[in-house]
Amino acid sequence: MNKRIFLSSLLLVGLLGCNDSSLSPDVAAQAGDKAFDYLVELSDGSVGIGARATGTEGETRAAQWIQDQLTGWGYSPEVQAFTYTRRGSQMSSQNVVVTLPGQSEQVIVLGAHYDSTGVSVGSEGATDNGAGVSTLLALAEALAGQSLPYRVRLVFFGAEEVGKQGSNAYVAALSSEQLGQILAMVNLDTPVGGDILYVHSAHSDESEYGCDDASRYSFDPKVRDRLIGLSQQGDMTPFVLHPSFPGYPEGETGSWSDHAAFACQGIPVAYLEATNFDINGADGYDGYSQTTNAALWDCYDADSKSACDRESETQWGKIWHTQYDRLDRMAELFPGRIESQIADTTRLMLRFVQDPGL
Description:
Helix content: 25-40%
Strand order of the largest sheet: 1-2-4-3-5-8-6-7
Strand content: 15-25%
Structural class: alpha/beta
Shape: globular
Number of domains: 1
Distance between the termini: 31 Å
Number of helices: 10
């Protein structure tokens, strides 16, 4: 352990207390600031990596950068290489995995994908999903040298934007014994940017996920509900459940991100996401319109919470995969929002791993 890590560990022991799972506000605030710093390094192309389109040099650079951060804090990250077929060609990517020690052999998995999309329109993948990656890195740094109630495995997934390739490969490689050790999975995908902070569970209808073995599927909402409760303990903006909309009961989500492979193996999941389910978007109240900010609409009607003209609208309040998903544009449109939301997300995850309630 180098001197910096040793001193940081001593500070955390003093602030956290040997037998106290509550976090000092100073530790949580510092971790939130660090998460934003890492988001700049990862997603701002003027000073860091920038866009990380799947299968490009940017994605590979991001994977190496994640490894370098973790190694610098005294961890020994594992790189899980995998291949997949896209448009008739064999492609390769990698997951970066690190395990924080715990007092139990049981495991909590926290995951976030590091690739991005929308580069052709100017996206740098800040909200989708540099923010999730940066939160997990800040968590790893803050907890270096600590022992948690359960082992916490941080998985940085590659190739999510082209069919969740990284999470599928990760789960497929687990033995029955390893799967049995996993108590929960929390997926951080676009946890900042939108108007409202949400936590979802898996859908109560397994057919939404199309698992190979439906008998193993879990939609247990206990992880989601624990996170909601922890967010309501003060010092942060509470996360909420999305309202019901056709096909999706309150607080339940589909299979479109990295939590899906885990739910199919019977693991309770939660999915953190910042968007706005109150908006009547292009396809209804489905959360694909992230904001009511008029700058991201051709014309927004506040009374209907929708487009002034649904036939001619082209923008629909969307951030993900667009020219707005970059830190410079987000700072102009939403001053202070990204900093505040990533701090809240980091604080919530620190609370959860210290006191998961499982």
